[in-house]
Amino acid sequence: MPINSSLGTQQTSQRLLRYSTAISKCSVQSIAYEPVGFESTAVTSQNELFTLRGKVNIRSDELDLENTRILIDDGQYVGFLHSDGTFTIPGLTSGSYVVEISAPRNVYEPVRVDINTKGKIRTRRLNLIQPSDITILRYPLNFESKGYPNYFFKREQFRIMDILLSPMVLMMALPLVIMFVLPKLVSQDPELQRELEQSTNFLPQNQNLPSISEMMYNFVDGGKKKPTANKRQDGQRRK
Amino acid sequence: MGSVRLLFLLICLPLLTLGLFEDQAGSYDWRQQYIGRPLYTKIDTNLNRLFIASEQNALACVNLKSGNIVWRKVFEIGEAGQIDHVIWALKEIVVVSNNGQRVQGFDYNRGFATWEYSLFGEQTQKQKILSVVSKKEKESYYLANNKHLCLVGSREKICIELPTDDGFVTANLFETDHGVFVIRFKDTTAQKLQYNTQLSSLLSKTILNDLESHKNLQCMNSLDSNYLSCYSDQISSIFTTEIKSGNANSLPLTIQKSILSSDREPRLAWSSKDFFLIETLSEDDGLNLYLFKKEQNENDLVLLKKIESVQAYDQVSHSQNSFLIYSKYIGKNKLNFYTFDLKKSQERTDLLISANVLNSEDILQLEASVTENKNSQLSVTVSCFFKDYSLSVFNQQGVKYFTREEALAYISTVEMVDFPLLHLQEEFEDEFGSTKQDNLITMFYKRIKTQLIMLKEFIQIDLVQKVTSLLQNSPMTKKSQSGISLDEITRDEFNLNKIIVAVTSIGKVFGIYTSANGKILWSFYLKNTIAFKFNKVRDENTIPFFVQRTAAHVPYEPQCVLISKANDQNGSLKTRVYFFNPLTGRASKDAPKEGYLVDYQVKQAFLSYQMDSHYLKPVVLFDTENRIHVFPQSSISDLQAKSSNKPTIIFSTQRENDNLNTLTGYSLSYSNEPLPEVWRLNFEDEKISAIASKLSNDRIHSHGKILGDRSVLYKYLNPNLVGVVTTGQDSQNVPYVNVYLVDTVTGSVVNSFNHKRCKGPVNIVHSENWFFYSYYNMKFRRHEVTSVELFEGDIQNNSTHFSSLDDIKPIVFSKSYIVQRSFDSMQVTLTEKGISTKDVIVACQYGVIMEIPWILIDPRRPIKMTEVEREENLLPYMPEIPLNYEFTLNYYNYVYNTRGISTAPSGLESTSLVFTYGLDIFFTRVFPSKTFDMIREDFDYFFITTLMVGLVLGTLLTKKLAAASNLKKAWK
Q: Where's the EMC1 first beta-propeller domain (chain B) (predicted)?
């Protein structure tokens, strides 16, 4: 029987108490975490009770050490963490359990634990959709934090680049480039200029057609700015 | 294909943005944590902490000065987490829970578990657990029940079985230098067992002859723990026995009969070697204390002090001295705590605490602690748990440190009540003519009048306030935050703030303001309230409570009715109907102050759907003899007049062969006769475990659903439909769950669903034309939910009126989904007009309150997507509903052991108010269809303003430039 000598064995050895091999095995396995004493029990019931051990690694927030609860089968059994993050849940009968860690500031994956009648504990990844798909995990349980649960959405922040890269702005910027940059380029190249002039002469501009920009201009201008318009007309007449 | 679907879902999920933004946390939601009624209390003035182990399966550490919870451990819900025994040891808290099956150590400082073991094994019934802190073994404790004796500590657990002599009840446990002693009784036999300290051998087993032949001995460990003191009521004497030798010290010490006189039920409350405290009940049920002293060489005990009509007492040891601290009410609202020095046998007047209390309720538990300060002066701190479940701590000066309303951990029924409109708003309503006589001129006059009043009010109140606040340079909001009085609160613009009227199973009623972090506006304690038990399994208590009249009917006051059981003066069980105003918490003016006490036993209580002439919805009580009683009685004639020739059917559950399996419909008539039975549904071996009907304020906006091809699928909107969940076991003892959709007018089953190899607990909600319920699938060992939606089809049978008697066969859609967790409680969101989608709010043991979007549980989610369905924005069927963290309404503020969820609509169509209760209470607002009717709070006003200003400036500038360039052109 693998009993660690550091644990107090002397008083129980002479007594005719029935150990559960599984329990002593568990305790030995958990020595990696802490020197846990073994249990001896004289209670002879048909349903032997087993103990589940494990460790929860907290990453995001130290506050969680106090607020973490270990839920077995949605709170049929509840366990609490020791100050080093380990936990022990005694009093489980053989069966299959889902172990879940309820921590407000850490995310953990739930695990299915099967305890057979001899107390052998097998753990595997919880797969609700395909229960036959088995991925064996190590026992004692070791829960690694998957980070901070994303309870909140990120607010959209105002950034210049976002605006500049938005399709609307791009759609407006491109014509501007054509409007302002292209004439400059054209003016540097006289040959091109001539070509362009020829091409534009194909489409004789209809002078009487009011341009949209002019309409907008008049609209924004309002009524009282009419004198300017008159002046312009005067100018044209003078010409 | 699967990956495509997953991709689709991933794209769709961000669309269901239900979650919060981080800066919104705490802006409108709040959580309050409670502990429940203390079973064990310890005051530690050095640490400035109060430790409580409670009836509600919680172990908590509270700041002694502020009353805030420092840490709290919540055990399993129900029996499995019940705390049976607590040892406040020197360095750790030892908690025995789950009916003696588990023992755990907790650290005082931060509440970490230190060690845990399984203890006594399965028990058939509750047994008393005895404990002794070991003196020899460091940090070890002896624990015993009737069958076992254990030595537990952080390092090991040793358990032995006590010799199996049937019927022995363990009464006392001692540890002396000579080993561990167990005293146990069987009828008139007293047995003493002696073990060595390691419990490895039974050293002796003797019969205590002196205690022979006395029935009903009450035995106690004396203070110095080497003596056993036993009190026999028969001969009213006290035996003291030295534990080691097992010999009685001398002849029994007798108490003269005349001293206790006519007092009942004497009980030995405390003893030391020479002092004995006997507690009795006086004729008027007051608590009397008698302190006796043993004189040398005398057989009669000497009465040292008689203390009459004590509220509560506690005995405290402090450095070899013992004090008896007891409390008495001195007049109204004045509570005194006296300290009696047992060693010097005199009253310590310097340790008297005189405190003012508001509630002046009886004290259920008193816990005191005596400490010595630097000047070696003693001081007393007391914690009182009152009968109205409020917990207060008083210091030596009589200053109350805090009051915790622990009754809020016992909420059984909740309603959210609207505040009245401002009187201005009322006049607004009036303006459009409240009566028919109003003609155009009077209406015009009223309009001018109101506007003049508004102007006056604006100048008087708003302007003055603004000016003064400007002068004082203090923001106005600060003032309203600190002290809110009831009169100041009126309905806000969008009716977002309401008053939550919460009725607790102990009879205390609270009015809680939905903003200002759940400030309690009023509370009252209805004495002598006994709750109805409705679920024998979970032992749930309920007190039915309804809002009869809202604040909308000026000049009538709003009114609520509360129905409970109560004892009358002779101690017989009666039914009480109590009326109160939900806005003030005061008893209603139209009814007796103590409510009506009626003789019959109520089986069911409900609110009539019709109003009487005073806009009051009368409450209808259905008694065990199937008779109907209406409160207030005056409105019965109104109801009789209004009831048309169409019968109203009510339904009720019944037990048959001790099995809750029958649903019966009765035709309602307001007479003295028992109601005639109309239909009866018997589910044979199945047990009814839940019934879901629509919430009374459930609004339906649309009669149909518009499909992708622009056709309409009409909903089956049967207002008489209920969902009945039954559970049972088949011939191989495999449990199953059945859900029947029953039309309560005809008693016919519209549809039913069978889930084999599934078990409860089943939670079910019903709204509009759909049902949603959860259960546990034993075959696949997972929790599942099913949603069911009923439709009439492409054509509506009758668009104006629904009749249960019409032969409509609804088209049923149903889908089952896998969920990761079980749900403790479930509720559907409510909105003003029912235009927003209805989401389901669930509470999990995990500690989260989640909002499951309807789009995920829609039973019409197709397995194979067609073009039409894609057009309708349905998600493809996926077996699992991912319970994302974004759905969590309470983010990291976890709440535990939630028993119920209450929802209410607000004035904004997008917003629904959610209140959950259990051990903790939590309130928030939810937006099932997002906030479509208000500007988001992160709306960038600055950005939009700069943009506007910039555009205007730009236009002006370009105009100038254009003019200039035009001028230039003209000069060319």
A: 20-406
